[in-house]
Amino acid sequence: PDREFPVGNPVGVLRWRSAHSDESKVPLLINCWPEPMGGGVINVNIEFNLQTLAHTVDLHDVVISVPIGTDSAPEIVSCDGLTNHVAHDQVLEWHIDLIDGSNSSGTLEFNVAGRDTDAFFPTTVAFKSATTICGIAVAEV
């Protein structure tokens, strides 16, 4: 190759995306329920559940990014983990340090100004794992 592998620098070597509707194949199930409260406020409940097949996998530095349709800061009602409002992207990031067999579910509830309950989709998830979800391994480098 023309370039050597960047030793000592973190590099993503595997990215995974699911484009099917079989929820048993995804490691983390995310449910989002936006509910209009009146007066231009929407209450949003989000939960995550580690799927049964993924209980042997530890998900580290999990970030669930929820579009909120406004740059106004949401009011956090309750949260398992931490949140970060990214106003210029109109996103609320939900940070969970570790999701594993002993911490396999969590919830986030917040209120935000808005009227469009479709604004909270699509939700995206990013995480790190020392093992692969699909059980493949690198045979040789």
Summarize the structure.
With 141 residues, the chain is mainly beta. It has strands spanning 28-38, 41-50, 59-67, 75-79, 82-86, 91-99, 105-113, 124-128.
Describe this structure in words.
The protein has 141 residues and is mainly beta. The chain is built from no helices and 8 strands. The strands form 2 sheets. A 4-stranded antiparallel sheet has the order 1-2-7-4, with no helix packed on it. It has a 4-stranded antiparallel sheet with strand order 5-6-3-8, with no helix packed on it. A hairpin with a 4-residue loop joins β5 (82-86) and β6 (91-99). The protein is globular. The model has no long low-confidence stretch (mean pLDDT 87).
The gross shape turns out to be globular
Q: How many helical elements?
A: 0
Strand percentage lies at 35-45%
- The chain-level structural class is mainly beta
**Into which percent range does the helicity of residues fall?**
under 10%
Strand order of the largest sheet: 1-2-7-4
Characterize the main sheet.
4 strands, antiparallel
Spell the H/E element sequence: EEEEEEEE
What's the rounded overall pLDDT mean?
87
Radius of gyration based on Cα positions? 18 Å
Low-confidence stretches: none
Alpha-carbon distance between the two ends: 13 Å
Number of β-strand runs? 8
The quaternary organization reads as single chain
